[in-house]
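Problem statement: downstream parser choked on a complex file, so we are re-checking the raw output for the oxa(dethia)-CoA run. The parser issue turned out to be on our end (a line-ending mismatch), but while we're here, posting the original submission so the record is complete.
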Amino acid sequence: MTYAAFRSIGAYIPSKIMTNADFEKIIDTSDEWITKRTGIKERRISEENEASSDLGARAAQVAIDRSGISKEEIDLIICATVTPDYLCMPSTACLISSKVGLPNVMAFDISAACTGFVYAVSIAKAFIESGMKKNVLIIGAETYSSILDYTDRGTCFIFGDGAGAAIISATTNKDEAIIDVNCSSDGNYEDLIKTAGGGSKHPCSKEVLENKMACIKMKGNETFKLAVKTLTSDVQVMMQKHNLSNEDITHFIPHQANLRIIKAVGEALGFTEEQTVVTVHKYGNTSAASIPMAMNDAFEEGKIKAGDTILFDAFGGGLTWGSALFPFSPKK
Ligand code: UT7
């Protein structure tokens, strides 16, 4: 039997920092309000010449270097992003494939907003368990700064740019295997988080540009309530299915959208502060990159060790949501 093992994690954090004080200069807000309502103090913004593929390729290189797997062994690249370099083609995964020097590998993007990385884990697992692929590079890469309306004070201060990546590989050792990934969606909530313009529904036009329809619009408060409910029930279902208690989880890594959401979910589920990985204060919400960037931070701080049980919990536009349960299994 072939299983899928989560081998390595990497990230790329753009160096440019945008603080809450920077937002005080462009919208009617305050550091105090943003901190109290979201826990966010700063977020990273990519350079003008950096697109999602540039961020993703840098994160991918770190994940490859840490995996103990040679680049040539990678046979699938999946990039989760809703801020691709190009709206239609080529895919960001294709661009990453050439940037990391893997031009002859199957590569495609997936669009599941903030749940994208968890969807990518699920797809990688399926490809490996079916025997179709052996070493999958998954990436979550976002440049939200390219789709933000910096006059929309209800949304623009939340998001940031960044990328995370991982290598998932075939193994015959069940102890190393990803235990479960559960992903879902509900398009009935399409209007909660949306970029309405620029696609086939409202193709690029004067109206789309004038009304900033290609920028993200979010109904924050409604989204907040659904996020807390869904992120909580998602984990409850996963834990019950595998007959797990909180002590069985070493690191709970929720989507980093808002510290109040993370705290509410963590408290409802009974995870301790030590178990819960939090990076939202320094990176804001980086959508598909948020979970791998958070995991990478914990890894670089020496908190994540081989064999630790990790639980991802994501929620985002679509709506989409999902959780992944796995041991961290670096190659021995
Ligand atoms: O990653 C995908 C999932 N996304 C999320 O999970 C995001 C979920 N939503 C949120 O994080 C929060 O809803 C926000 C941080 C976006 C907003 O916080 P909130 O506590 O839900 O605020 P609100 O939208 O209910 O607005 C409360 C008040 C309003 O004023 P009034 O009507 O009470 O006078 C807003 O106009 O806060 C005002 N407000 C602001 N004030 C200062 C809204 N944005 C700002 C701002 N600075 N930037």
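For whoever reads this later: The mean pLDDT is 97.
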